[in-house]
Every structure is written in C-alpha cells, then in structure tokens.
Specification:
Length: 542
C-alpha cells in the first residue's frame, strides 16, 4: 500500500494477501459464475443429472439444484455467498434455486462487461435494483389467481415441479398424493411442509405402491411381543416422561439388612409402575408412545393390559403424532386425563421388508400432520423421488398460501426482459445500461432451457421475443418442438412467489458480489496435531 510520500507502507502481516479494484471484482465474478455454471445444465425438464461422490464413496445422483449446491462443499467465500443465497431461496419458497443461481451468474457476467467499459459498480447495483422492482411489477401483472379448490391447477403445478426428475410416468399419481397431503395439513392459509408432512422411504416394490397415510408412520416396533400387533379404534397416549423408575443418585444410600426388605423394596417399585399403567388403562388408553424409556417391568404391565407401546420416539415424531391424532403430550402419566388422548382408526405394526417392521397410525380424523410412503428399487432412486416430491409439496404450498401462478417454460423471463427494456428507455445516465444488462440476463433462463432440450437457443429466443412482442405474454418454450406455445393452455405453470423470489435472490446475490472491491486474505497455516489428536491435516487462519 503506497504511503503519502510515495513509499510503500506495509500494514498486513507477512504472507497475507490483498486484492483490490477491478482485480478483486473480476476474480469474485469468475468464482460466482463458476458456481452458476455447475448447475446450468440441470435446469428444466430436459436437464442432465449430476453424480456427486463424497469422501467415503457415497454417491448422490440428482438434477436438483439445491442438492447439487449443498453437496458441492464450496470452499471459496464468494462461492459460499452464492450458495447461501440459494439456500435462502429454498428456505423461503422451497423451489427455484437453480433459476436464482443461473440468473445471478448472468447478472454478474453482464456487470463484468459494463465494468470493463468504465461503468462504476455502484451505478450497476442501482440499475439492477431499479430493474428488479420493475420485474416484480411485471410478474404481478402476469399472475393468474388460483383458489385452493382448483384441484386440477394444483396438480398441474405439482407436475411442473416434478418434470425432469425421471418419474414422468408417475407424475399423475404423485402429484395427486402431494396435493392431498398439502390440503390435509393446510391451516390458516399456510402449508408447513417441513414440520407437518413426513416422507417414508421403503426399499422394495414399485413407485406405484406409494401412498398417502392420513396419520404418522414410525420407524419403530412394539416394545414387547406380547403386546397386540394391531389396535383398532386407538386411544393414544403421548408421554414426554418415562415409564421406568429413576436410578438412585450417586450419594443416595438404602440400607437393607434382610432378604425380605429387598423383596419389599422391589415390590414397592413394581407397585408404583403397576399403578401408572393401571391409570392409563382406566383412562381408556390402548396405545402408548413414550419419548423416553419404558422399563421391562412397565412393559410387562402394559402387555398385560393389552396396550401397545413404543419408546424412544423422536421429538419431531412426537409433535407430528400430536398434530395427527389430537393427543396432548404429557410429562406425568398420573396427570393424564381422557381429554389428553389422541384418536386413530388403526395402529398396527407391519412388515415393510424381509426383516424390517414399522408402526402405522392411520385413519386420524382431521389430521394436521400426514405421512407419504414412497416405494422404489434403490436408496438412490428413492432419495431423488423424495426431492422431487418435496419440490411439488413446496410449490403447491406456495400457491395455497399466496394464491397466484405464472406460466412456465421461460415465459415470465422473456416478458420481464421485454418490459424492462422498455423501462430502461425511460432512465437517464448509466443506470440505463445496467437495466438493459438486467433484461439480457433474464433471457438466460429460456436460452438455457432451449440448450438443455437440444434446440438452437438463438432461434428459440427470437421466436419467443416475437410472440411476446405480439402480446402473447404466456407463451413459453415447448420442449418437444422448440416453438412458442401458450403455457397456461399446456398446463405448465409455476407459483408467482417462486419466480419473484428467484429474481430477488439473484439480484441480491449479484449486487452483494459487485459491492466488494477489496479482499484481504490471511495466510493459511498448517496445524500440527497434538498428542492424542487425529493425524489429519488442519488449517487455521494466521
């Protein structure tokens, strides 16, 4: 760093690095674009899959943009910023991560060209933000309202989200399951997919055997073979506590001088547990799910009263059971009342494989938590089906929540590009150049869709521009013919919330990178493991 006298002044430790100005900007843009390119070929119904192999040799095969980015383990700080923006997109609306990252990469590509022409990054950021606000207005004007009762539209939305996931022949059935699940757990106009819909993957059978269970499926077995395997008209207890006597503390002492005293002590323990189980039975309970332990003695008494029980239920499953059955989670069994019991038509332990058994809670009345059971030939295949189904659930939830959709097939991006160009003509100064660059970046989506489908991207883009110029706002790319087609008539639709959030996330990511003009990097040093530590390589910032 040069001092006032013209001589360099060193303010960083030896080994530290500094990159500033255009050098830092170009490097950051290059990294961000590299992340975007990694998912570009996976976009759309004709997108390609990626095979991601971990250090242990485990493989993930997917074309889901979010999964690809998570599994890549990006190390570069700028790359991590792009991944975090994609994660925010996924957390907010559950879909559109690939679109957001591709647009962010194109925005940075166009910005790089403007920087080389002498346009200051601050002016580019300002122009991008103005264009993004205009794009949001355009999408609002394009949006079509959808009611939760319009089941056909909801299923089309789910099918669009699952297109390209390798399950084309089963999209109809899975979309129906997804819509049923979302509508079942909808409450106050919102669908909480993460906490109210559980996906159970069972290896074996075919995808056609997949089904929706209006209840919960637990990866558990009966605690005692003497307990009933099947309970009809189930009255369910959810215990947050335990059905075993606590062990004595380390400082506690019991003085027993005769064998009869020991027997009396044991009998006293049994009496307490018998009383607990007797109380549960008296309240009408015939199924008990316990988050903590159930001892052998309690298990014996439960079986004696014909009560099915399972222990060590996870906190997540306990909450889902409460939502599904209407049961109240109680900490003390003796405080349980009849009003705290949950209800289900059937609780049954079933074989789901050669050796595996699971407990099915079915026929819950007005359940606010459900389970989707998917069957398939392999774990890798089931993982991809689960990701596709989750995307479908999220977009259906978005439409139920926000009530609006836009056509798919690149139609929104082409319309936004056309309208933003018109808007840019009203701007003065260099903001106009940034707005024009924003419009060009939007067209990266239809271009990528055309490339991935094997069509000439230039011809497809020209045709789409022509169609939109004639007022056909809902025309997008037909992947079979490469021609513009009305996506609304074709049934290719996407939630408005996903599109708006994707463009917003992309703009935020791009402007965040553009505002960085100085990178100070500390020296990375090798750490020598100390005595007893694993001899792996460690690094730390100096």
């Amino acid at each position: 760093m040069a001092g006032l006298s013209g001589y360099p002044i060193i303010v960083l430790k030896e080994g530290h690095k500094r990159e500033s100005g255009k050098e830092a900007q170009h490097k950051n843009i290059t990294v961000a674009r590299a992340v975007a390119e990694s998912v570009r070929s996976s976009l759309g119904p004709k997108g390609m899959d990626k095979m991601l192999i971990s250090n242990s040799g485990d493989a993930v095969i997917t074309n889901d943009g979010a999964t690809i980015l998570w599994e890549m383990n990006v190390d570069n700080p700028v790359g991590k910023m792009i991944v975090e923006v994609a994660r925010a997109q996924d957390d907010e609306v559950g879909d559109g991560t690939t679109t957001a990252v591709i647009i962010a990469g194109e925005l940075l590509k166009e910005a790089e060209a403007l920087i080389d022409q002498g346009v200051h990054p601050t002016m580019i950021v300002q122009g991008y933000r103005q264009a993004q606000a205009q794009a949001s207005k355009v999408l609002d004007e394009m949006a079509v309202p959808v009611k939760r009762e319009d089941r056909a539209m909801l299923e089309r939305i789910a099918q669009t989200a699952m297109t390209g996931k390798g399950i084309e022949s089963m999209k109809g059935k899975l979309s129906g399951i997804g819509v049923d699940a979302a509508l079942a757990v909808e409450e106050n106009g919102k669908v909480d997919v993460e906490h109210r819909i559980k996906t159970i993957k069972i290896i074996g059978g075919s995808l056609e055997d997949s089904q929706l269970n209006l209840g919960v499926v637990l990866d558990k077995e009966r605690l005692n073979p003497s307990m009933p395997r099947q309970v009809s008209d189930a009255a369910i207890v959810l215990l947050d506590g335990t059905l075993e006597l606590k062990k004595l503390g380390t400082d506690a002492k019991i003085k027993i001088t005769e064998a009869t005293e020991l027997r009396s002590f044991k009998e006293g323990e049994e009496t307490i547990l018998a009383g607990l189980v007797e109380h549960l039975s008296r309240m009408g309970a015939n199924v008990v799910f316990c988050q903590k332990g159930i001892g052998l003695t309690a298990s014996h008494f439960l079986a004696k009263h014909g009560i099915m029980a399972a222990r060590r239920i996870s906190d997540e499953d306990m909450k889902m059971l409460a939502l599904a059955t209407g049961a109240k989670i109680v900490g003390d069994a003796m405080q349980l009342g009849e009003a705290d019991l949950g209800r289900a038509d059937l609780v049954e332990e079933r074989k789901v494989g050669k050796e595996k058994s699971m407990i099915f809670i079915e026929g819950c009345q007005n359940p606010k938590a459900v389970s989707i059971i998917i069957r398939g030939v392999s774990e890798i295949y089931l993982d991809e089906i689960e990701r596709a189904l989750n995307d479908a659930l999220e977009v259906v939830g978005d439409v139920i929540t926000y009530g609006k959709v836009v056509p798919g097939g690149g139609a929104p991006e082409v319309e936004v590009a056309e309208r933003v160009r018109q808007y840019a003509a009203t701007l003065t100064g260099r903001n106009q150049l940034a707005a024009m660059a924003f419009a060009k970046a939007m067209e990266s989506i239809p271009v990528t869709l055309a490339e991935n489908a094997g069509h000439n991207a230039v011809d497809c883009l020209v045709s789409l521009r022509s169609a939109h110029g004639q007022g056909n706002k809902s025309h997008g790319l037909d992947f079979m013919s490469g021609k513009p087609v009305d996506m609304m008539e074709l049934g290719v639709v996407e939630p408005l919330a996903v599109k708006q959030q994707a463009i917003k996330s992309a703009t935020e990511a791009a402007t965040m990178v553009l505002r960085i003009d100085d990178v100070l990097a500390a020296e990375r040093k090798e750490m020598t493991p100390g005595p007893g530590q694993s001899p792996h390589d460690y690094t730390r910032m100096g």
